Amino acid sequence: MGIGRKTRASTRYWLAIALLVFACESGPTTAERMNDGIAQHKAGNYEKAIESYTKAIEKGATDPLFWQYRADAKTMLKHYEEAIEDYTASIERDPSHALAYNRRGETYTWIAENDKAFEDYGRALALEPGLYSAHSNRGDILLETRNDPEEAIKEYSRALGLFADDCRALRGRFRALVQLGRQIDAQPDMEHFNRVCAQDG
Phi/psi class of residue 78: alpha, beta or left (left: φ > 0; alpha: ψ in -120 to 50)? Predict the structure, then answer.
């Protein structure tokens, strides 16, 4: 009986050691990697954020947000081509991910791929019509690269219909109206912008 008890105790001991070693080797969970990456990004430590997301992906993470968040960090480092690859990977894993389309579109604009950007904004809006920033983004392309202030005004107005304090839409619609010689119509947008957006520049 004594030998049996010792054997069982020994087995439990080595099982506990094995579990401890496994826990040490397995390291942080994917959720912990996600939280660490977000915290590092907020702190401006973009390289460390990328490292956290990459380790989670290498460990088998499947949530599309890991690729989106890693892309967000890469854009902050101006690694635009790599960011586009990650946004695309996120979209492939979740084709209904409207924000990933919008963010990829914004990244395309940084490398002057404005037609691709415009297409991505359209896809984002088809999935999520209330995504006001996608309307503002489309307005910027229409105004700045396609020289179409009338259509730009429509997009900015859609954005403002969804979120009245959208600073980019207020500024963009003001510029488009001025470009068309409609300074009187533009004045309320400038007043609104100065009231709610002046601190943002």
Answer: left
